[in-house]
Write a structure and sequence with these properties.
The structure is a single chain. An 8-stranded mixed beta sheet has the order 1-2-4-3-5-6-7-8, sandwiched between helices. A hairpin with a 2-residue loop joins strand 1 and strand 2. The chain contains 14 helices and 8 strands. Helix 6 packs across helix 8. It has 391 residues and is α/β, with parallel strands linked by helices. It has 2 domains: 68 residues; 242 residues, Alpha/Beta hydrolase fold, catalytic domain (Rossmann fold), CATH 3.40.50.
C-alpha cells in the first residue's frame, strides 16, 4: 500500500509541477513577444523542468523496484513452496504463483475468470486452506495482470489460452514429477478448463467448474433480460434507459466492456444485496494492494479487465458447450451458487444432462452467487478436497 501512496503522491506533485511549467512557459512567451523576457524567467523555467525530471525519475525507479520486489508471502515448512515464477509458454512470457505446505502434494491449477482477469492474490486470500492439500497454481493468462504484455492484445484468441494452458500443464507435470494435475476454473476459466480437459484428458485427474459458463451469447442475452426485469421491478428508470439505449447483446466493437458492464455490474450489486449470500463479493482493493503485484502490474490489473475482455469476449459468442463438448474423459464437477445471476445455472443443468463423463456431479452452494469460492470459501475448499482427494 505504501508503494501505491508514494506513486500517487509523486504523480500528483509531478502534475502540479507540469502545470507550473506550462504557466511559466506561457508567461515567458508573452514576455518574449513584448520584448520583456528576462533571464530570471528562464532560470525559473529550467528549475521547474529539472524538478519534473527528478519526479519522473523517482516514479520510474519506484515502479522498477516494485516490480522487482513483487512476491507471494512465504509458507513456513521445510518442504513448502511459495514462489512467483515467470515461465515462457509458446514464446510468451507469463507469470504464475506456486503455493503449498508440501511441494510433493498433487498440483491444482486454478484458471481465473475474465478473459483478462487476475486472481493470483484473491485465491491466496480466499482459498488458503487448499495450500495444505495441493500445490496451488495461479496463472495470470495472456493479457491479464502480470502477464498483460505476454502478447499484443489484438493477437490473443481463445486458442491462445488453450495452447498456453497446455504448455503450462506440461511445465507443471515436469517440474513436480506428476503424470496428471487437477483443474479448477471459474467463470471464463470454467470454459477454458472444459476446453483443456476435452483436448488433453491424459493430463488431468479431474475438473471443477464454478460460475460455469456454457453458452456465451445466450448467457449475455439472459443476463441482459434479467437486469432489465430487476430494474423495471425496482423502478430504476435510469438503468432501464441505459439498457435500452445499448440494445440487447451480443455486442461487438470497441465498447463491449462498457456495454456489458451496465448489466453485469447491476447483477453483481443485486447478488451482493441478496440476504441469502454470504461474503458477497470481491475485495478488489485488498487484492490490488497485494504483494504479488508491482505498480505496473496493478495498472495492468485494470487494463486487462477493460482491454483484454473487450477484445477476446466478443470472439466467444459462438461457443456453446452443449454442442461441442458433450463427452469428456475426466471426472467433472460443477460448483454452482444457488443465486448466480451472471452464469445461468439452468444452462449448466442442461449441459450436465447431456454430458458423458466417467463421473459428473453438480454441487450446490446455497449461500452463493457467481463466486462460491469467495461466498462460501470454507465449504468450497472442503468440496474440492472431497471431490479430488476423497472420491
Amino acid at each position: 500500500m505504501s508503494q501505491i501512496v508514494s506513486f500517487l503522491v509523486l504523480t500528483i506533485v509531478a502534475l502540479v509541477v507540469l502545470a507550473v511549467i506550462l504557466f511559466l512557459l506561457a508567461d515567458y512567451c508573452i514576455a518574449y513577444v513584448r520584448s520583456r523576457a528576462t533571464s530570471s524567467q528562464i532560470t525559473r523555467l529550467k528549475k521547474a523542468v529539472l524538478c519534473l525530471a527528478v519526479l519522473i525519475a523517482l516514479n520510474g525507479a519506484l515502479i522498477a523496484v516494485s516490480q522487482l520486489t513483487a512476491s507471494t508471502p512465504p509458507i513456513q515448512g521445510e518442504n513448502s513452496i511459495a514462489e512467483l515464477v515467470e515461465v515462457e509458454l509458446n514464446g510468451r512470457k507469463q507469470w504464475i504463483s506456486l503455493r503449498a505446505w508440501d511441494r510433493d502434494n498433487p498440483v491444482l491449477l486454478f484458471l481465473a475468470g475474465g478473459p483478462g482477469g487476475t486472481q493470483m492474490a484473491a485465491v491466496r486470500h480466499e482459498l488458503a486452506e487448499l495450500e495444505k492439500h495441493f500445490v496451488v497454481v495461479n496463472w495470470d493468462q495472456p493479457g491479464a495482470g502480470k502477464s498483460y504484455n505476454a502478447d499484443k492484445i489484438r493477437n490473443i484468441t481463445a486458442q491462445t489460452y488453450i495452447e498456453d494452458g497446455r504448455a503450462l500443464t506440461e511445465y507443471l507435470k515436469e517440474r513436480f514429477g506428476q503424470e496428471k494435475i487437477y483443474l479448477v476454473g471459474e467463470s471464463w476459466g470454467s470454459a477454458l478448463g472444459i476446453f483443456l480437459a476435452s483436448r488433453y484428458p491424459e493430463s488431468y485427474h479431474g475438473f471443477i467448474g464454478t460460475g460455469q459458463m456454457i453458452a456465451f451469447a445466450e448467457t449475455e442475452r439472459i443476463d441482459y433480460a434479467t437486469a432489465m426485469q430487476i430494474a423495471e421491478q425496482k423502478g430504476d428508470t435510469a438503468l432501464v434507459a441505459k439498457l435500452r439505449a445499448n440494445g440487447a447483446p451480443p455486442y461487438y466493437g470497441s465498447d463491449v466492456t462498457w456495454k456489458s458492464a451496465v448489466y453485469l455490474n447491476y447483477l453483481n450489486n443485486a447478488m451482493a444485496r441478496q440476504p441469502g449470500i454470504q461474503n458477497p463479493g470481491y475485495n478488489t482493493l485488498r487484492d490490488l494492494a497485494s504483494s504479488e503485484y508491482g505498480l505496473l502490474d496493478k495498472i495492468n490489473f485494470v487494463r486487462g479487465i477493460v482491454n483484454t475482455f473487450n477484445h477476446v469476449y466478443q470472439q466467444l459468442y459462438e461457443i456453446d458447450l452443449r454442442t461441442g463438448y458433450t463427452k469428456l474423459d475426466v471426472p467433472v464437477y460443477f460448483f454452482l451458487g444457488r443465486y448466480d445471476l451472471n452464469a445461468p445455472t439452468v444452462l449448466v443443468e442442461e449441459y450436465e444432462q447431456l454430458l458423458e463423463a466417467p463421473k459428473k456431479e453438480i454441487v450446490w452452494f446455497e449461500h452463493s452467487g457467481h463466486n462460491p469460492w469467495i461466498n462460501e470459501r470454507d465449504k468450497f475448499a472442503r468440496e474440492v478436497i472431497a471431490c479430488f482427494l476423497e472420491s
